[in-house]
């Protein structure tokens, strides 16, 4: 079959979609980029906000309209939380629990043929970066977050299994992103994240590794010492959510701004040229003008390389959804615009520090005009013009 896959949401979702893509290609199916060309369309959904839910519904409706003969499959976190919403739009809905064996479920329903010997040309399109799942689940139950309800308890993949997966990818990818719901909670029979990263550096020859989101209480000097190996990208996505201590307390986060600031200082001391990116929620229930001003000021002081800004979105079943003093939508929008303006200025200031520097770039894609785009180790996007069909990682 011709199969198109699309992912909404986090890097963990991307990792799971890529694994499915490799399985389908190995079974002899043809992966296509456009849903209009597909016999089967698979959407891996997100449900962190109501906007993510709306995107999933919109995309499924659009594919159904443009390609009415295609079989539509919805899976992921939205499918886990509210399958009835998606059953109106998709032919098959598969929850997170069954997502890892999605191909087998489709075979059992007669939608896919059982795996055949791989076709000679069956392969996932060559890409610069691969996402590798090392962990899933979260038991923090932050007040605003639906993820523990749709991902379940924390569980880590064995280090041997992860290393074997990375070795298989070595011929086709130049950068591996280690991802999970909460990778700082990685635990393989008592061996933590630093152990896994050390083994990956020692036992594989991937040119670049990047880690997805961490929290400040998960960063230790011992872990940071691993960044003396240049194969580890100088980039930390350090979750913040609010720069106000009182809001962090209501959220149920496991740190305060003082710990966060000390962690940022420690990272910058040990990892030169590092990019620190983050997530911030505006309009959390009860957030006052003073609390928002404090959060904005804290973000300004942290000099982030990038800030992902989210307006608070109540998720049914979470503690925050039932909190009093919900913030008016107009106020949330105004605060979002202020935080986005700071994010833009902060990102520009970070990039300007490196103007004129020579650094390695992982070139990812080329447009029709021959312009390539790629990212540096510290996550600055850069561009070059080159008519070649392939550009290796070069200065």
Strand share of the residues? 15-25%
CATH class of the largest domain: Alpha Beta
The spatial strand order of the largest sheet comes to 2-1-3-4-5
Q: What is the N-to-C order of secondary-structure elements (H for helix, E for strand)?
A: EHEEHEHHEHHEEHEHEHEHEHHEHEHEEE
Unreliable stretches (pLDDT < 50, length at least 5) are 120-126
Total of domains? 3
Largest sheet: 5 strands, parallel
Commentary on this structure:
With 395 residues, the protein is of the alpha/beta class. The chain folds into 3 domains: 2-108, 3-Layer(aba) Sandwich (Rossmann fold); 129-352, Alpha-Beta Horseshoe (pyruvate-formate lyase- activating enzyme); 358-395. Helix content is 37%, strand content 19%. It is built from 14 helices and 16 strands. It has helices at residues 11-26, 50-66, 77-81, 83-87, 96-99, 102-108, 147-151, 159-169, 193-203, 221-225, 245-251, 257-270, 289-302, 329-352, and strands at 2-7, 30-31, 40-45, 71-76, 92-94, 129-133, 135-136, 155-156, 175-179, 208-211, 235-237, 275-282, 306-311, 361-366, 371-376, 381-385. The strands form 5 sheets. The protein has a 5-stranded parallel β-sheet with strand order 2-1-3-4-5, with helices on both faces. Helix 13 packs parallel to helix 14. The protein is globular. It starts with a strand and ends in a 10-residue tail after the last strand.
List keywords for this structure.
395 residues; Rossmann fold; 3 domains; five-stranded parallel beta sheet; alpha/beta; pyruvate-formate lyase- activating enzyme
């Amino acid at each position: 079959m011709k199969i198109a896959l699309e992912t909404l949401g986090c890097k963990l979702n991307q990792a799971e979609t890529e694994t499915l893509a490799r399985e389908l290609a190995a079974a002899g199916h043809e992966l296509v980029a456009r849903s209009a060309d597909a016999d089967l369309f698979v959407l891996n959904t997100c449900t962190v906000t109501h906007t993510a839910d709306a995107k999933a519904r919109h995309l499924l409706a659009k594919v159904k309209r443009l390609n009415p003969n295609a079989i539509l499959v919805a899976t992921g976190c939205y499918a886990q939380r509210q399958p009835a919403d998606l059953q109106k739009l998709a032919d098959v809905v598969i929850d997170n629990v069954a997502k890892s064996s999605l191909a087998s479920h489709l075979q059992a329903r007669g939608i896919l043929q059982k795996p055949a010997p791989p076709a000679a040309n069956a392969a996932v399109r060559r890409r610069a970066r691969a996402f590798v799942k090392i962990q899933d689940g979260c038991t923090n139950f932050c007040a605003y977050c639906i993820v523990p309800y749709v991902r379940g308890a924390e569980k880590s993949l064995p280090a041997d299994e992860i290393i074997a997966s990375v070795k298989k990818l070595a011929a086709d990818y130049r950068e591996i992103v280690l991802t999970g719901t909460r990778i700082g909670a990685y635990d393989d029979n008592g061996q933590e994240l630093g152990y896994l990263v050390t083994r990956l550096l020692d036992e594989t020859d991937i040119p670049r590794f990047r880690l997805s989101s961490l929290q400040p209480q998960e960063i230790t000097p011992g872990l940071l010492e691993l960044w003396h190996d240049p194969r580890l990208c100088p980039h930390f996505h350090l979750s913040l959510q609010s720069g106000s201590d009182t809001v962090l307390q209501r959220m149920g986060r496991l740190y305060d701004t003082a710990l966060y600031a000390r962690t940022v200082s420690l990272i910058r001391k040990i990892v030169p040229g590092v990019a620190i990116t983050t997530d911030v929620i505006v309009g959390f229930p009860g957030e006052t003008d003073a609390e928002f001003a404090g959060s904005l000021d804290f973000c300004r002081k942290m000099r982030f390389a990038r800030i992902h800004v989210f307006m608070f979105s109540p998720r049914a079943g979470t503690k925050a959804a039932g909190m009093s003093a919900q913030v008016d939508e107009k106020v949330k929008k105004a605060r979002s615009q202020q935080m986005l303006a700071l994010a833009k200025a902060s990102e520009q200031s970070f990039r300007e520090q490196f103007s004129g520097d020579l650094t390695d770039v992982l070139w990812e894609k080329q447009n029709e005009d021959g312009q390539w785009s790629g990212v540096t180790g510290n996550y600055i996007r850069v561009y070059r013009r080159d008519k070649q069909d392939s550009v290796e990682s070069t200065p």
